[in-house]
Specification:
This protein has no helices and six strands. The chain has about 140 residues and is mostly beta strands. Strands 1, 2, 3, 4, 5 and 6 form a six-stranded antiparallel beta sheet that branches.
Length: about 140
């Protein structure tokens, strides 16, 4: 299953040679989502693997990019406690500049991104003072 996400390239890490046969490079996207007039900022760490580790080189931090990725997961038994543990990776396979044109049929503008470069922590959103984060307050029906 292939997924796409558009966001601001926040951080590019150096490539890591994990083993003789496996190389990866991680990067972080700042993804803004507008819900009921409030902007919620999320941060997603994705990875590029093997020969694709250099496709992020043509972008600089702060660029808006569209990333195509797959969700990959593995399980393993922890030798310390014998418990089965799970790992989930977001494996990017294409990174391209986010186009200025909207997708067909989309009339909503993209949400505003956090441009406060000095803020490195927490969830950054511009919520109304009386914001209630309970799911009952969110009307996400498509009609």
């Amino acid at each position: 299953m292939s997924l796409e996400v558009t966001g601001k390239l926040l951080v590019k890490y150096d490539a890591q040679q994990v083993s003789e046969k496996f190389k990866k490079r991680e990067f972080v996207l700042e993804i803004a989502e507008e819900i009921n007039g409030n902007i919620y900022t999320n941060f997603a760490k994705l990875q590029l693997v093997q020969a694709k580790t250099d496709i992020i080189d043509r972008f600089k931090e702060g660029d808006m990019v569209k990333v195509s990725f797959n969700i990959k997961g593995n399980s393993y038994v922890d030798k310390k406690d014998g418990q089965t543990k799970y790992i989930t990776n977001l494996d990017a396979w294409r990174v391209e500049a986010a186009g200025a044109a909207s997708a067909p049929g989309s009339s909503q503008p993209a949400p505003a991104y956090n441009n406060n470069a000095g803020n490195q922590g927490g969830n950054n959103y511009n919520a109304a003072p009386n914001f209630n984060p309970s799911p009952e307050t969110i009307d996400d029906l498509p009609f």
